[in-house]
Each structure stands twice: as C-alpha cells, then as structure tokens.
Write a structure and sequence with these properties.
The structure is a single chain. By secondary structure, this protein is of the alpha+beta class. It has two domains: 107 residues, Tumour Suppressor Smad4 (Sandwich), CATH 2.60.200.20; 85 residues. The chain has three helices and eleven strands, in the order E-E-E-E-E-E-E-E-E-E-E-H-H-H. Helix 1 packs antiparallel against helix 2. The longest helix has 29 residues. The radius of gyration is 25 Å and the shape is elongated. It starts with a strand and ends in an 18-residue tail after the last helix.
C-alpha cells in the first residue's frame, strides 16, 4: 500500500520517521496543534505555528501533492526556497518550517518510477525554469498602528517620547481653544487625542511583549494599577528574544 513518509532531519523530532497511509487520504496538517497529524512540541518548537502547513493531493495530478503554507508566522520553505500559498511537493523534497526551524524530507513509499526527461520547447540559450520565491518580508517592524510583529526597546522609548511631545502640544492647543471660547472644539480634539494615544500605547506594549516571546494579552495586567510601574520598566528595559520567535523576526537584526 502506498504511503507518505515524513523523515525528520532536525529539531526535536530529528531522526524520527512518520508514515501516513494514502488509503482514504485527505490531508496532513503540520503544526503544534494537538490534532495535527505531524505534531511538533508546543513549547520547544516555537518557530512552528499551531497550524503551520498542510499536505494535500494536487487536484491537477492525482499522483501529485501540494504543500500549502497556512499563513504561518515564520514561513515555509521547500529546498531552501520560501513558498507562498500552495507549491508542488515532490519525492525527496526538503521542507523547513520557519527560518532556522525544523526540517523534514517528503518521500513516497514505494518511490515513484523515474520519468524520462522531457525536452523543453525552448531555445538552447534559454535557462531552465527554477522555483523562486519573493524575498522574505521583514516582520520585525510593523506599522505603528498594528498589533502584529515585534519592536525593540529603542523603538518603544522613541515612540513614547513622540507621544509625550505631541501630548504636550495638544494640551497647549486645547488650553488655548478653551480660553478663547472654543470649548466644543477643545473637547473634540482632546477626546480624539486620547483615543489615538491609547491605541498607539497598547500597540507598542503588545509588540514589546511579542519581542519577549509573550502573548500580547499581557497588556491586561495594566488593569492592576500597582503593577504598571513594574510592567513599564520591563517593557522598556528587558531585551527581546535573540533571533526570530513565533511573532516575527528579530528587530535588531532587521534594523
């Protein structure tokens, strides 16, 4: 009976072999989810997303297979080329989950028969097509409005300084409007600034927690007022994870 063989080459599953029968085959989910068919350690393999990638049959070729990246945080590569969406998976291909993440080889048992080389209808001077992927986008620094990705301590302190200076300017403008009889406009400007400042503050804090490989839900500790000074010192002084983590690449290495 034909089957898919996943031969782990590195990571916590290195030297392990997993076999999936093609009898009634639908798909293979790869990730840290508890129900993933190829399941990675949820604590030690933090470069692998919970639902990282999947293997399915190629609808255009009943004997072929496709590897699909499921919008993972750190990406998926076949033979050192990052893929986006679905890509053809062949016997003997090496798959890597995330930059510096675990690798495995995809094999079929029994191996497919070797096919004769098909002559390409191209001029001899034309180079053969190769599988290429766009450059990996940097995920460390994101929009100041975004709650995704990571930021370093320098960006954190710099943004806080800008917020304080802009807040001082807004306070002066609001005071001037109030003194000149424009109370309604002053209140509108003040409320708008409070909304913007709170949003940016939360976004910065979430991305700093991400940089330290913690969930952005850590901002909920802000509701314990006594903890705010300690949290602020941690966000501004504790270094982030060295190298990529589950929330993105290292902002210091992408500076």
């Amino acid at each position: 009976m034909q089957s898919i063989v996943i031969r782990h080459l590195s990571g916590t599953k290195g030297n392990q072999v997993e076999e999936v029968s093609l009898d009634g085959f639908r798909d293979i989910l790869i990730g840290r989810e508890a129900h993933a068919r190829i399941q990675y350690d949820a604590d030690r393999e933090d470069l692998v997303s919970r639902k990282h990638a999947s293997i399915v049959r190629d609808p255009a070729d009943p004997d072929g297979f496709l590897l699909t990246d499921l919008d993972s945080r750190n990406g998926t590569a076949i033979n050192n080329q990052r893929i986006f969406g679905a890509s053809r998976l062949r016997h003997g291909d090496r798959v890597q989950l995330g930059l510096s993440g675990p690798e495995f080889s995809f094999e079929l048992s029994p191996p497919p028969a070797a096919r004769p080389t098909r002559l390409a209808e191209l001029p001899l001077t034309t180079p053969p097509p190769v599988r290429e992927a766009p450059a990996v986008p940097a995920t460390a620094e994101t929009s100041v409005w975004s709650f995704e990705g990571r930021i370093g301590r320098g960006t954190f302190w710099g943004t806080w300084l800008v917020l304080m200076l802009v807040g001082l300017a807004v306070g002066l403008i609001v005071g001037g409007l109030s003194a000149s009889g424009g109370q309604a406009l002053a209140i509108l400007l003040y409320v708008a600034w409070i909304i913007v400042a709170c949003w940016l503050s939360l976004a910065m804090q979430v991305k700093r927690w991400h940089d330290m490989d913690h969930s952005g839900l850590m901002v909920l500790w802000n509701f314990t007022i006594v903890a705010i000074p300690v949290l602020f010192i941690m966000l501004g002084c504790v270094p982030g994870t060295d190298g990529p983590n589950q929330y993105g690449s290292d902002p210091l290495r992408n500076a």
